[in-house]
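Subject: complex prediction, re-run

Hi both,

The earlier run crashed halfway through, so I resubmitted it with identical inputs.
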Amino acid sequence: GEDVEQSLFLSVREGDSSVINCTYTDSSSTYLYWYKQEPGAGLQLLTYIFSNMDMKQDQRLTVLLNKKDKHLSLRIADTQTGDSAIYFCAESILDYGGSQGNLIFGKGTKLSVKP
Amino acid sequence: DAGVIQSPRHEVTEMGQEVTLRCKPISGHDYLFWYRQTMMRGLELLIYFNNNVPIDDSGMPEDRFSAKMPNASFSTLKIQPSEPRDSAVYFCASSWGGLNNQPQHFGDGTRLSIL
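This time it finished cleanly. Structure:
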């Protein structure tokens, strides 16, 4: 079945870059997502990438996709204490009608940023 | 635009009681998802609807859990009778499906504690 794997923890110093990695299994996924969850809050969409792209940049965020290895990463440049949160990787899967209505989430990576 | 609205934000009740969680999706979205989040199991998909019709309820833990979507702007998740192991944060999310995939938007969750 489909599965998304992430490391559970990452600790970095303020100002350094953070790289959060994710592997997924469904080669038919056409969209892959990164969500951020702050304490006591819901998941917020950070960014997503279409599977025919290998890179997407959005301000401090860079997403890299290696479709051959089914590997996705999120790089946060100049990490700030406000970036401390749990980051979830998710892949889209096809539903019965061929539309991509469902996501499979990883267990999340808890990013701790030390001053 | 209002986001996904969940109520209540917090619920504390004694085991054996019926619990009803409510969700109002974003207007125009045709997919609605219910998730449960715990420390041990991470984020689990319980059930999702497309155009008010349940598509996949394989994640519903047992018969004590039921979900309905009587119209496009309202859904409920009911637990009867509730047990302490049901304590978790329950999230509702909605999206617009179709061929041009759109990301899921999450509510802020209901934190449920069963004593």
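The longest strand of chain B covers residues 42-50.

- K.
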